[in-house]
Write the structure tokens for this entry.
Amino acid sequence: MPKPKRNEAKQDYLKRCTAQVTKAGEKPDKAFAQCNATWNQEHSVSQALKLSAPVKLEEGGDKKGRFLIVAKTSDPVQNMWGETIFLEIKGMRTEAKLPILRQHDPNSVVGFGSSFKQDNTLFIEREFSQVTETGKEVKDLAEEGYPWQASIGVYPEKVETLEDEKAVAK
């Protein structure tokens, strides 16, 4: 992946990068998304949508305790510029295993989860880690009633701007 040059404008970088990545065999929309993510990472700017969700503690038959995160519903969200965004749940992809981290810190492992979709809602579920101190602490606090929140990042591969609120995505 080409890196932004010093003092290169974002539009210039995106044009150069997308052309290179497309030439290497990637589809143009995916190439653009990859280049945009690289720009954001290099400039410490994240355009990911950051979504907050409640965490529900579930008692399992083995009493280990599981958590369930309602990661995203089909309800619209507001981005940082005040625009209304709709995310298509059925088109979302996730990895088979998702790291569950406290404060997004890779050194603070709560556990790992897997996702499932039901009724146009994305869920993440899993047991707390039994070997990390963070996992034990988060579970203990949840059992005491601490109102944990979870945040997830959504990195769109395709963005479509609709002309008005009655327009339909293609």
The mean pLDDT is 79. The helical segments are 10-23, 28-42, 133-143. The chain is about 25% helix and 30% strand. The two ends are 29 Å apart (CA to CA).
